[in-house]
Each structure stands twice: as C-alpha cells, then as structure tokens.
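Sequence only, no structure available. Ideas?
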Amino acid sequence: MTILRPIFCVAAMLMPSAVLTPTFAADDSAMALTIYTTARPGGIPAELYAPGMQPTYSPSQYRQIIPGYAIVKQDRRIDLKGGRNTIRFTDVASQIDPTTVRFSSLTDAAGTTVIEQNYEFDLVSTAKLMEKFLDREITIEQVIGDSLETHTGKLLSTAGGIVLQNEDGRIQVISHYANVQFPELPGGLITKPTLVWDIMTQKPGPHRSRVTYETKAITWWADYNVVFSEGADANSGLLDVSAWVSIVNRSGATYGNAKLKLIAGDVHRSPTPRSPSIAGRGTSMRVFAESKRVDFEEKSFFEYHMYTLGRPTTLPDNSTKQIELFPPSHEVPCEKILVYYGLGANYPSYGNPMTDRNFGIQSNKKIDIYLRLKNEKSAGMGMPLPAGRIRVSQRDKADGSLEFIGEDTIDHTPKNEKVLIKLGSAFDVIGERKQVDFSVDTRRNRMEETIEIKVRNHKEEPVRVIVKENLYRWTNWKISNNSHEYEKIDSRTIHFPITVDKDGEQVIRYTVTYTW
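Reply:
I predicted one. Tokens follow.
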C-alpha cells in the first residue's frame, strides 16, 4: 500500500487565546542533564548505537533495552499575567516520566504556585486522524495510470481500505491511494508531547522558571582503549590507557548546549512492572565524537561518583555521543598473568560430601591470560574508574599497526584498587589435569583424592603460571601431601605459583583428605 501523507491545516486552535505560551529568547534557555546508568558494559545491542542501523523497537522496549535514565533541568524566561495562567511546554522528551515533573519560579517562588499540571501525549498520527474523521468528510487522491483522481466523501471505515460514502449516497472502497487530505487538525491531537501547567502568580511580568523531570531511554558507559607494550620480561608490560564516555540518547528529545553530569555507582531504584511490547519503527542513529581539552571533573557525591563536563555539549535525539573522559595515561606498568584452572568450572557448595570419584574430573587445557594493573596516581592513573568495556591492542613492530588482542569489562573501580583484564587463552602454554588416586571410607567419614597437574611451555622464554584448584568435594579438607608450595586463597581455593622454563614442563601433584 502506498504510504499515506496526510495534509491538514494546523491553525492557532492549538493555543487558545486564554492560554499564555512561554516566550523566551534562545540565550534565555539553560539546559542541564544528569545521566544515570544501569547498563552492563558491553551489554547494549550494537544496533542501538551503531550508525546506519534500523532497529524496530517500541518505546516500551527502549526502556528495557537502554538501561538508564536522566534528570533533565531546563531554565526558561516566561511572561506571566497576574492571577491564573496556563503554560505549555512542547519540547520535552517523549520518554518522560510524567510523575516526576516539577515546575517552579526562580523569580518569585513564594508567590507563584502550581494549581494543576498535565502531560498531554495524544500525538497526531495517520491512524488517529482516520479515527477522528470517521463519519466526517475527507478527500482521497488516487493515482490511476498517469492521472491523479480525487474522491471526496464521508469516511465510513478504514478496515481493509478506505470506505467512502459519496454525496449521491454511493459507497466506494479505495484500496490504493497516494494522499489523504484532512480539512483540519481535530481537537485533542497534538504534534509533540506537551507539559501543561495551571499556575497562579502574584507577580505579573517576566519570570525565570525551572522545569525538572526524569526521562527514560538514555544511558552512558565508559569505553577504555588500551595499548599494550611488552615489558622487560614475558611477565610484565606497559599500558597506554585512554577513556571515553559513550552516551546513547533515545529519549525523544535533543538537549542543546546542556551542562552534562554523569553519575557512576549503583543507585537503587524501586522495581517497576515490565511494559507490554508494542510494534514500532526505529530510526537510524548518528554517532558523534568529541575530544577537547576541557575534561570531566570528578568528585565524590553521596556514596557515588559524579563526572561533570567542563563545557556545554549537545546530545541529539537518536544519537550516540562519545566524549573523552580523562587525558590518556602513558606507560602504566602492568603484570601479565597466566592462570590455569584445570576444572574449568566453579562447583557450588553441596549439602553432602561428593563421594562420586567421577565427579568433576573433566580436564580443561586452556590457560587464561590476564593483565593486572593498579589504579594509582604513581602509575599515571588514580581516577575512580566507572564501569565499562576495555579493549586492548598491541602494536605490530613490522608495520607499526595496532592489532586487537582482547576485550573485557570492569565494574566501578575506586582509586588505589587493582584492575584485572582477561584477554583470552595462551597458544603456546597448555595444561593438563587428572585424578590419579581416589578412595572413600564411609565408616570413618573420610575421603582422599590425589590430583596431578602438568603445565607445558612451548615458548622461547620462561613463563610464570598460577595453577588454581578448587577443593569442592567437602568443606573440611587438608592437604596431606604436595609437590609444590601453595597459597590458600579462601575456604575452598588454593593457588600453586610456578615457573615453567622454555620448552619445559612442570608437574604438580597433591593429595587432599576430606573428613565429615
């Protein structure tokens, strides 16, 4: 079916003469935006922020898919008459939570009160126009061959096509049409979501007002780009770290020249029921990047952290904006850690001793690679790091290009805490774990197991490996025999730190006794 392009006249009927609309110059409007996020780093679908994508999510789905919200504060100059006034603000976010709206006069707060406030969201659409004009006259334009025919009549139905009743009483069904002409915009329909206040003031004249509300479908997270350089040995390195803030705005409004604040931390929200899914049409996203030397200022705020941008910025609707979070840090020292976890999976605590000899004997051969750094000032870092995604690259010495070597996510990390980045699995270092002995004495409530672990290094230099073991069969355990020194990490985890020579092998054997 050809797309409808309704034509109608929008007259001053939207703004009755008794209504005072806010008048303000562009430089009289001040916008501020504080964005909160519950986004899991890396958990936002790419089509919500990648350029050129055409997602098909409804407004209710956006609130679920984009886990964040913002508090919008806008100052405007309005003209009020003495007594009662009706004020309409039309440029508000379509994802607004109307229960959070507040209006106040900064000029005369004590003498200006809000009697009533409303949020009008019955927006004009083809379907609603058709519904409003049932049993009323409309004009249909239909393309027949190379000519354009016009049909005018009373609209009886839109089910299965347009059903018109002509002046002579004939009924006409039109399945394909080019345009629909409506004589006017029916009352009750508006072109933008609108906030309406009934205000009483004792001070006529210009007022500086402030409108505050919460909107959904806007979020942010941090993206960290890291370049790894090899250190003095195979177990160390240096990092160049840069950080960007990514902001996704699907709230249905553009925030121009806004003062921007970001809140990092786990702010509790009361649970809300899931909204039903409604079919909708997405729009393409635009991506903007800014890198200017006016940085974010970080400070503690309650039990969270606040990042305030030192200059205004514009957040267009249906866009992703990236802003540099802090200046790059260079040559941050780090450790390269290889971890072998032969079990391959964490087993939970069970209510009874696990006496089945075949339980948990599967062997994982992969050895994981981690980078560990300390977020401290002496290392060139020291800023509280918001949760985000870390992408690590290394420079190819042959041509100087950066090549991707791994990606991970971090949670909110205070200063002077360690950051652990998992990159992948080692190619030239492998492990092997097997059970070599097992016995159970149910009369004495005793179980004994012997484990053998082999780590082989096929690199041209020695490597350090941490061998992680979980003592998962029961809570009471004791290592009765061990070939290497170990470190007890918690009530059920031990580590064997070992060094494996180039083209060498290390064999760890230990016996654990469980009693109950």
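Helices lie at 59-65, 126-132.
Hope that gets you unstuck.
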